[in-house]
Amino acid sequence: MRDYLDFRGKVAVITGGRRGLGRAMALAFAERGAQVAIISQSPEADDLLQELGEAGAEAMYLSADLGRREARAGLIARVVDQFGRVDVLVNNAGLQFRESVETCTWEQWETSRSVLLDAVFDLSQQAVPYMKAQGGGKIINLTSICAFREAGGNFSYGVMKGAVVSMTRCMANSLAQHGIHVNAIAPGILRTDLTEPCFADPENLKRQCAKYPTGHLGEPGDIVGPTLFLASEMSGFVHGQTLVVDGGFTGN
To answer: How much is the pTM?
Structure first.
């Protein structure tokens, strides 16, 4: 029987993979045989590299501020120099401000754009030539339910995540002919550093959970299945789509 979740011989790159959703995805790829490259702003990640090694993966860590164009330059080439190829790119790195259209500063706007939008474009563009040369690849962009609903209090975040949905579709239309699949995942509230305030305040948690048909918010592990599906051959005819993973929130 064919194992569609066997990633042996594949190389997966995850941005923002130091903690939260990115860490969960990185470990999932490692446990299924992939070589894993993490790109994150933290200066070191010895504990994560140890955990990836214990999962059986050959791994590398690149420290980079993805909000700076010069810091992004050549990152995918460094992965290819180490592992020889790049099969999966997960654009996961993120940040969030509490602001509205009235209070958002230019600094917040530009920081959001550089991390949430420019870095997705830049690293994808870096990866495409390698994927084309090897006959295909998978690009998975992390967007958010804020692209569709309730982004008034995270204005620049919602705008950029909406743009990621559009960029995913446009990239897929251009790259499908080369065997490169580009899709997105839009999570609801999953427990990460960014969303911890939702979980820390019992009254706020109760209010948030009431909006979800599941009756509860998500955990980092909830992103693993959708990511592996889009990274595997199971999604071989899926292009330009945004998979919503939100416990039913947007359908409520």
So the answer is: 0.94
